[in-house]
Design goal:
Chain A: Pfam families: TOP6A-Spo11_Toprim, Topo_VI_alpha, TP6A_N. Chain A: Its EC number is 5.6.2.2. The complex is a heterodimer. Chain A is α/β, with parallel strands linked by helices. Chain A contains 13 helices and 17 strands. In chain A, the strands form six sheets. Chain A has a six-stranded mixed β-sheet, with helices on both faces. In chain A, strands 9-8-11 form a three-stranded antiparallel β-sheet, with no helix packed on it. In chain A, strands 1-4 form a two-stranded antiparallel sheet. The chains are: A alpha/beta, B alpha+beta.
């Protein structure tokens, strides 16, 4: 087993704490100087979200709005931001987490409240963007479950050591607070993420983790932020190549692409979430043809989505362009499970080895 | 069974005006119980006003209405006017079509029927005599008479029942009449509302009214000037008919057509006379009594083809903006008021008129309906409130045609405003004998619209400013509420003491005021934020989010 790199949890906590404190200091300094306090909040309108070719994911541009205490429309937002920041600082300090919904209920007791949860969610995002941090760093947790990991890796959550190979057939469930999890040890060469839990269980049953010396990650559809963070961390901290296997349709393509290049909506935290080195394993349009897979015809909405993808800068790569065109041309899509046409073992015995060889 | 002509004419009778109106009292406006009493108030009040003004006295009227029984009242009405000399008292109150109001002059009443009509109604419904106490001045000496009389309808004159003399303290007339089949009401058409409106149109008057419940209302005068008396003006050529010309020709002392025309009509010069001769071929040096009907018709026809200056307007005396405002302030105690008086113009090419309009907002303006104030229209003609027949009236039509939303009045119906419109003219084109609505002549409608829209614009400006002030107060409150919280929370965040922030708070509040006044303190900052804010609202949910949702649905 190789030595895991030293973890950065403690420093992350400190950074979060100091950044939140700094927000307050910025305002107090202005007050002492008898200036009207203001905050710079990066704009996250579409026109300020740009695809960074070098980084290979979406980043925020340099446009920002200034929120002044002297503006009647902005003062309430500043008040809400400061209160949320205090709430988060307390969470970080006490090493607790809360969901956005919980924060919304706590805010009932604040002097400057929210009209609805949508408003509090947006202010949460405002702070993420302003401080350049993810909400997990602020102690605010998403409510959705993380995905499952199965394979030879040992993690440490607080005082508990977890062996993902000995956590039952469903594996280890990625915690929303994945940044606080330490990687203690592992003995794998790669990570293969699959879109559905059906495929995840198939791979466990066929002992794919042994055959390919891999971690298996079940994404459960669109990958949660914690899952994306997990994939990025194993890729960067453990130097493991990441492969993604999804359905052969525009939606499957895009689940993979959000893991690889990040989402526009979360452009301000993509540096923590995107895994530009991750590779799309399949199912491609070429696979549909080469393996003569059972298919469904493309629906109108699929065609529309494929056309959208072909204009998306994240799909500028010639391979993607070819695959999108090919799918439009054959007018067909296929699910991962369609390999079962050749028997339940086929996908692990034949398809994965062939594709992995192709990509390496 | 045929009758001879002589037999048929055995029953032939001559009908006096009194007899005629006894049978046709609706022609005097006496229809309905509420309306009848309102008309009585109207006749007595206008008569008192006219008399006082002609004598240069500020009118002061006391009205006392006692209820005897259901639909049965005793009315006592006294004024401070010049009084009526004894010889004329019964002529004024018992002889119909007697009076001084048959001239081309702006006046409240016109037909000289008013007072005698009231006596007639009283007598017809109760059989009781009228009682009049009059006090007048002769060569600096006050004289008084106290008469009780009835109207002899057959003879169209008074019948004295009792005479007393008394020692008056000041001039004036006091009349006491008893009525049945009338009803006192607080409705919009009722007697009380009539007085209230009269006070708005006549701010120089004072009325003390004791209602049937003995409640005493004192309507004080808002202006201390007796209105300038309107002058009689000669008729404008466009306003006369062939019959008018023949009538003038019969009763003139002029020796020639041309001098008849120049002396009886306004805007008639020698140049115009020559023009008429040219157009009609009539020799205008003829004697007036030789004028034939056909010639009169030809001349009237010529008038319609000629260009005349507008009629002189010296005969028109408007109430005036200031006085309208004073009157409305006194009665409606509004929070906002605006009034305007238009320049004189003509309708039908030859009748001069002036439109005045005012708007009162807030306070007691508007009608009170179940504790909620609604908008109301007050129509006037020569200062006299028009209470009935508002449906087809030029004023109502003009006001209805205005797009009130343009003036910030989204829900006019439920706005506490009173719209006042007065038409001043020597000939108000009433639609019916009741004289309660004005014919919708296009020129009149136009003027009413223009006048009202002008005051509506002022109201709009006021309402805007009021809204801005309210907003300002709200803004200040936001800052006062939020700034301390934010600085306290920021200090907690920064783990430091709360600094002194009064100066920053003052700065912020001042800045907000400047912003409101349009002096944008830092425009550039605002613009960036504006863009940001719209970004936030519109595009926070972008493509990824959509696809994520769709994916979730697919699962």
């Amino acid at each position: 087993m190789s030595e895991v790199k030293d973890n950065k949890n403690l420093s992350r906590k400190e950074v979060s704490y100091n950044k939140l404190k700094g927000l307050g200091e910025e305002i107090i300094e202005d007050v002492i100087k008898k200036d009207i306090p203001s905050l710079k909040v990066p704009s996250r309108g579409t026109s300020n979200i740009v695809y960074d070719d070098a980084k290979r994911y979406f980043v925020l541009g340099d446009r920002y709005g200034k929120r002044s205490l002297g503006n009647v429309k902005q003062i309430k937002k500043i008040g809400q931001m400061v209160q949320v920041a205090n709430f988060c600082k307390d969470l970080v300090q006490r090493e607790k987490t809360a969901t956005l919904r919980e924060m919304y209920y706590v805010s009932e007791g604040w002097d400057i409240g929210f009209d609805n949860q949508q408003e509090s969610n947006i202010v949460g995002e405002d702070i993420e963007v302003t401080l350049g941090m993810s909400r997990e760093d602020l102690g605010l947790m998403p409510e959705e479950d993380g995905a499952s990991v199965y394979g030879n890796i040992i993690l440490k959550e607080g005082d508990v050591e977890i062996d993902a190979l000995k956590s039952g057939k469903s594996g280890y469930t990625i915690s929303p607070t994945i940044d606080e999890v330490e990687f203690l040890d592992h003995d794998v060469e790669r990570v293969i993420a699959v879109e559905t839990m059906g495929m995840f269980h198939r791979m466990v049953q066929e002992e794919a983790y042994k055959k390919f010396n891999t971690l298996i990650v079940g994404l459960k559809g669109q990958a949660a932020r914690a899952t994306r963070r997990f994939l990025k961390r194993v890729n960067e901290e453990l130097n493991l190549p990441v492969y993604i296997c999804n359905d052969g349709d525009p939606w499957g393509f895009h689940i993979a692409m959000v893991i690889i290049s990040g989402s526009a909506k979360l452009a301000h935290v993509n540096h923590d979430l995107a895994t530009p080195n991750a590779k799309f394993l399949g199912v491609t349009a070429s696979d549909i043809v080469n393996y003569e897979l059972p298919t469904d015809p493309l629906k109108d909405i699929d065609v529309l989505r494929l056309k959208e993808l072909s204009n998306d800068p994240r799909y500028r790569d010639p391979t993607w362009q070819t695959e999108i065109k090919k799918m439009l041309k054959i007018g067909k899509k296929a699910e991962q499970q369609s390999f079962s046409k050749y028997g339940l073992e086929y996908v692990v015995d034949t398809y994965f080895p062939e594709k992995l060889e192709l990509l390496s | 069974m045929s009758q001879q002509a002589s037999e048929l004419f055995d029953n032939f009778q001559e009908l006096t005006p009194s007899e005629f109106f006894r049978k046709n009292k609706q022609m005097l406006g006496f229809t309905g119980k509420i309306r009848s009493l309102t008309i009585v108030f109207h006749e007595l009040i206008t008569n008192s006003f006219d008399a006082a003004e002609e004598a240069g006295i500020l009118p002061e009227i006391k009205i006392d209405l006692k209820r005897v029984d259901k639909d049965h009242y005793i009315l006592r009405h006294s004024d401070n006017g010049p009084g009526i000399p004894e010889d004329y008292i019964m002529k004024v109150y018992c002889t119909m079509f007697a009076g001084s109001k048959f001239r081309n002059i702006q006046s409240r009443g016109q037909q000289g029927l008013g007072c005698s009509g009231c006596v007639l109604l009283s007598q017809m419904t109760t059989g009781e005599p009228a009682r009049v106490k009059s006090a007048w001045e002769v060569d600096g000496e006050l004289k008084g008479a106290d008469l009780e009389f009835k109207m002899d309808v057959k003879k169209n004159k008074g019948m004295l029942l009792n005479r007393k003399s008394y020692d008056p303290k000041h001039t004036g007339v006091c009349i006491e009449l008893e009525f049945k089949d009338v009803s006192y009401s607080l409705a919009e058409q009722g007697a009380f509302e009539y007085i209230r409106r009269t006070m708005i149109g006549n701010p120089h008057a004072k009325i003390i009214f004791r209602d049937p419940t003995s409640h005493k209302y004192i309507f004080n005068r808002a202006a201390d000037m007796v209105p300038v008396l309107p002058k009689e003006v000669l008729p404008h050529p466009r306003g006369v008919t062939a019959d008018d010309l023949i009538f003038m020709a019969k009763h003139t002392d002029k020796r020639r057509f041309r001098s008849l025309l120049t002396s009886s009509l306004s805007r008639m010069s020698n140049k115009r006379i020559a023009e008429i001769e040219e157009l009609t071929g009539i020799d205008l040096n003829k004697r007036p009594k030789d004028m034939k009907w056909e010639e009169a018709e030809a001349i009237v026809d010529a008038f319609s083809k000629m260009d005349f200056m507008a009629p002189p307007t010296s005969g028109l005396i408007p109430i005036g903006d200031d006085q309208i405002e004073d009157g409305m302030k006194e009665i409606l105690k509004p929070e906002f008021i605006a009034a305007t008086t238009r320049k004189p113009v003509t309708y039908r090419g030859g009748v001069a008129f002036i439109i005045e309009a005012g708007i009162a907002y807030g306070g007691d303006a508007g009608r009170l309906v179940n504790d909620q104030r609604k908008s109301e229209i007050m129509r006037f003609a020569n200062r006299v409130p028009l209470s009935f027949d508002q449906g087809s009236c030029a004023i109502t039509e003009a006001l209805k045609s205005i797009d009130w939303k343009r003036y910030g009045l989204r829900d006019l119906e439920n706005t506490p405003i009173t719209v006042f419109v007065n038409m001043i003219s020597t000939q108000v084109p009433y639609l019916s004998t009741g004289k309660q609505s004005i014919a919708p002549e296009p020129e009149i409608i136009h003027e009413v619209r223009q006048a009202t829209m002008k005051v509506a614009r002022k109201l709009q400006k006021y309402l805007r400013a009021k809204k801005a002030a309210k907003e300002e107060a709200m803004r200040s409150k936001i800052f006062e509420d939020y700034v301390p919280v934010i600085i306290r929370e920021s200090a907690k965040l920064a783990e430091t003491d709360v600094p002194e922030f009064q100066e920053v708070l003052a700065k912020v509040t001042r800045r907000s005021l400047a912003e409101l006044l349009g002096e944008n303190p830092d425009k550039a900052e605002e613009e960036v934020e504006g863009e940001f804010a719209s970004d936030l609202d519109d595009t926070i949910e972008n493509d990824d989010n959509k696809s994520e949702e769709t994916l979730e649905n697919m699962e």
